[in-house]
Amino acid sequence: MKRILIVKVTSLGDIVQALPVVADIKRAFPGVKVDWAADEAFAEVVRWSEGVDRVLCAPLRRFKKARRWNDLKAIWASIAELRAHRYDYVIDIHGVYKSAIIAFLARSSRRIGYQSQDLGERGAAFAYTGRFGPRPQGSAWHGMRISASEALGYEVEGPPIHDLKLPEPVTQPFATHDGPVAALFHATSKADKKWPLTHWVAVGRELSERGFRVLLPWGSDGERAEAGQIAAQVPGATVLAQMSVTEIAQMIDACALVVGTDTGFVHLAHALQKRTVMIFVATSPTHCGVEAPHRSTSVGDGHSVPTIGAALEAIDYVQAVEPVLAMQQGAAAA
């Protein structure tokens, strides 16, 4: 096994949670090269992975919106780059037309994708020479690891390894001497995933009382206005300036705690091993949630609005000293 291509095109949270597939493959096949095909909008996130050898990208999303000639030329150029190497396997863990087209264009006789009932778009099946087994029940993130292992013939072992290394920030705007920093990702791309502003205010106030400096990121004018409403009622809270994806990732890395809805940046916080609470209102925590003992947890059932109390209990859980460490400290004190 010399070279493998992973195809996962979008979006931020899905790509972040798919990255452990790379560590699995490299453990199973020492010395193998692993390339990754993604939309240009998320290519920088894949480049943070220390296990990915080559990132292939094209402005697919931007071209779909604007239909600009320069973007089309960039897409054609990316096809030449895609075909610069022959792959032992192409593993499409996305399962839609655009990912299938990438898989089909790659130079490989073995292109593996989902079974028809598991595809996001059934027509994507044209690209594949082989199929994964049926998607396992439970976490979508573990399911991707299982699918890749089935295609390549190895066993999934241990917890997921994201293996991310961020670029060093130009400045350190979130100094720790002001106390621990907590980021509240209140914004979400879909209205039905939102948690009430009154709940965010209550959590923000509690964190402020606990000595946290509360930061409020945003991505649109409407989200900035909502961040302002929360900050006006939370002592010491800061509405951040608009930031790039990399700058937000660096901000997350400076945090002691991240609380947010089911969005890509909260998945990134989990991957960066931050203390993370993810709040689910309309999506499935079983399928899309984050869990790591005493570090990350998901709140809600995906069908109703989680209470403020449930969120605070989750915050207490991820901030608690791990039981084994507590026992060791107690023994040492005795």
Automatic annotation (TrEMBL):
<keyword id="KW-0448">Lipopolysaccharide biosynthesis</keyword>
<dbReference type="InterPro" id="IPR051199">
    <property type="entry name" value="LPS_LOS_Heptosyltrfase"/>
</dbReference>
<dbReference type="GO" id="GO:0005886">
    <property type="term" value="C:plasma membrane"/>
</dbReference>
<dbReference type="GO" id="GO:0005829">
    <property type="term" value="C:cytosol"/>
</dbReference>
<dbReference type="GO" id="GO:0008713">
    <property type="term" value="F:ADP-heptose-lipopolysaccharide heptosyltransferase activity"/>
</dbReference>
<keyword id="KW-0328">Glycosyltransferase</keyword>
<dbReference type="Pfam" id="PF01075">
    <property type="entry name" value="Glyco_transf_9"/>
</dbReference>
<dbReference type="GO" id="GO:0009244">
    <property type="term" value="P:lipopolysaccharide core region biosynthetic process"/>
</dbReference>
<comment type="pathway">
    <text>Bacterial outer membrane biogenesis; LPS core biosynthesis.</text>
</comment>
<comment type="similarity">
    <text>Belongs to the glycosyltransferase 9 family.</text>
</comment>
<keyword id="KW-0808">Transferase</keyword>
<keyword id="KW-0472">Membrane</keyword>
<dbReference type="InterPro" id="IPR002201">
    <property type="entry name" value="Glyco_trans_9"/>
</dbReference>
<dbReference type="InterPro" id="IPR011908">
    <property type="entry name" value="LipoPS_heptosylTferase-I"/>
</dbReference>
<keyword id="KW-1003">Cell membrane</keyword>
<protein>
    <recommendedName>
        <fullName>Lipopolysaccharide heptosyltransferase 1</fullName>
        <ecNumber>2.4.99.23</ecNumber>
    </recommendedName>
</protein>
<keyword id="KW-0997">Cell inner membrane</keyword>
